[in-house]
Amino acid sequence: MKAGIIGGTGKMGMLFSPVFERAGYQVIVSGRTTDVTSAEIAQTCDLVLVSVPIRDTVQVIREIAPLLTKEQLLCDFTSLKVAPVAAMLESKAQVIGLHPMFGPTVSSIIRQTIVMCPARVTGTTLSDFRHIFLREGAVCTIATPEEHDRMMAIVQGLTHFVTICMADSIRRLDVDIGKTEPFMSPVYQIELSLVGRLLSQDPALYADILELNPFVPEVLAACREAAGELSGIIQDGDPGAFTTFFSRDTRHLGTYCGRGQELTDALIECMVKK
Asked: pLDDT tens for residues 113-125?
């Protein structure tokens, strides 16, 4: 069996190549510097994976779609699923959209989540393919493309938006980060580390995640509304209104508040001991 990764010379392709090799595939990759082309992969591989930047994914899929047969399995590694899966369904191949919920810097995929969006599969294709990741210790979540993108508007869109806003607020205030270190609390250190982690990566990735997900605008509208209401409460100096605002969010998150406390306590303990 052959697995071909289009864009496989990138970090994510290099992370997953050994995964498929251990599953018994002969893995070949294509990229800007390889002699192997996307068309060759589409014409010769049983499993075809598209691992290119989000903005390029649909175009690449449509270029290879006419070359695929119903015996092949076509997947992508994109952070969005509605548009890529729709493009993959234009082919004759079986289709499963994939989204690894981690970056390529992880040492392995053990206990890492992979979202799978099966759109057209036959027989045991889905269970067999899922088993490849489960055998590596990954956690697999099954969802429709729309369910995935709606959830990513929260999990990625809202998270990255708030993190970038924190960074830009610090910049606007002309704060010297180094001078905050003697005053650093564990929570501030965690938050600032997340800011640094995001800003050390490719801005094009985050632009695509925020700009191309059709469900992000409504999430950001809710964020702006929440920020406006909270700002008004703080400006009014009304502790009762603040408690009401705070408590309704506590009730909504429910038991996760306690779980979050335990998790961050453990994280802080690790930071202190490091």
From this structure: 999 999 999 999 9
